[in-house]
Description:
Layout: E1 9-12, H1 34-37, H2 41-50, E2 54-59, E3 63-64, H3 69-73, E4 93-94, H4 100-114, E5 119-125, H5 144-162, E6 167-171
Amino acid sequence: xxxELGIEMLxxxxxxxxxxxxxxxxxxxxxxxxxxxxxxxxxxxxxVNALGLKFGIWMEPEMISEDSELYRQHPDWALAxxxxxxxxxxxxxxxxxxxxxxxxxLFDCLCRVLDxxxxxxxxxxxxxxxxxxxxxxxVDQGRVLYDAMLGVYEVLERLCARYPDLxxxxxx
Length: 172
């Protein structure tokens, strides 16, 4: 029906990954939940493409849920002031993209998703205010936000080089 109405692309929104059953968990666990999708992400993309529609996907890769495998493995990857209770917005924290290892992890996650099929559009949801600026790895805390923005740019440059035809929307 969507194709008949002139719609060109189906964009799969939040909830397709990890144990994401509400907005309190799984940000950072960017692996398709095959039980929810009824198969692999690649199979879903093929079905959508076979209907004559392009496929796009939603992600919020710069965020992390405390109830996620990523946070359990790397709690220090979240921007948070030591000894203070973190400020959560929409039950999430911000990943420390001033750190090269976090940017590498993020790029690898994005590639693992994008390599699963003909994904032509990435809706990168960037809409949380950064209220706590402290990196567990930074020597100069005054550079954290600046270096985090450079980290975002670096991830985007790598994505554009690897996927030159991918349309990326920074949704905020």
